[in-house]
Amino acid sequence: MSEIIHIDSYVPNSDDKFFLDTNIWMYLYCSIGNYDEFVVAKYNEFYEKILNSNAQIFTSALQISEFFNAYCRLEYNIAKRNNPHLHYKKHFRKSQEFKDLISYLKQIIQNRIFKNAIKLDDSFSTIDVGEIIKTGESFDFNDEYFVNMCLQDSILIVSNDRDLITHDSNIKVISNLN
Predict the structure, then answer these.
(1) What is the distance between the terminal CA atoms of the chain, rounded to a whole angstrom?
(2) Which residues have C-beta within 8 Å of that of residue 72, sequence separation ≥ 6?
(3) 174 pairs with which residues across the strands?
(4) What secondary structure, in 3-state letters, does 24-60 show?
(5) Does domain 3-175 have CATH number 3.40.50.1010?
(6) Hey, which of 21, 64, 73, 144 would disulfide with 159, CB 3.0 to 4.6 Å?
């Protein structure tokens, strides 16, 4: 079972290595997400502590993809409220709004996320995919992949995802969840 460390009880130090789950990047950089302000403030405060400690933050191509796609889908769902017949691939992705969104996300990724996060070489060729593809009602390929990647490199995960705090590995997860 994963080891849960409450966000209020952990003090980052310069030797720590962190992987911020995609939900944390969304809290930090997606103001349209309508997230609970208290939750966002907790993770923003912890992010500042990480930065001030000079600890390392890692990210991966898969995570950037997940962040990008989650943000785009959120924007699409907001646009669809005003236009119920809007189709994601046929209409939204061809719109000026989407082109502007890509430009905006490029700035967030390059100037905010990559400013403080190290691109992690995930060594996909060495990963036992059988350890990642598991069955069960809470299966999420990306979560399994991130856990496996972080276990390989002794990286702490910062997340607000219940699936990760109940994960059946010995991954250490820093969270505001109980």
Answers:
(1) 14
(2) 98, 101, 105
(3) 5, 158
(4) HHHHHHCHHHCCCHHHHHHHHHHHHHHHHHCCEEEEC
(5) yes
(6) 21
User: In degrees, to the nearest 5, what angle opens at C-alpha 51 toward C-alphas 13 and 5?
Assistant: 50
DSSP readout, the chain?
-PEEEEGGG----TT-EEEE-HHHHHHHH-GGG---HHHHHHHHHHHHHHHHHT-EEEE-HHHHHHHHHHHHHHHHHHHHHH-TT--TTTTGGGSHHHHHHHHHHHHHIIIIIHHHEEEP---GGGS-HHHH---STT--HHHHHHHHHHHHTT-EEE---HHHHT-SS--EEEES--
33: burial class by Cβ within 10 Å (0-12, 13-18, 19+)? Answer: middle
Which token pair is 35? 């997230």
Q: What are phi and psi of 170, to 5 degrees?
A: -100, 30
Q: What pairing do the DSSP bridges indicate for beta strands 56-59 and 172-175? A: unpaired
Q: How far apart are CA 156 and CA 174, in angstroms?
A: 7
Question: What pLDDT, in 10s, does the model give residues 101-141?
Answer: 999 999 999 999 999 999 998 888 887 787 778 655 566 88
Whole-structure pTM value: 0.92
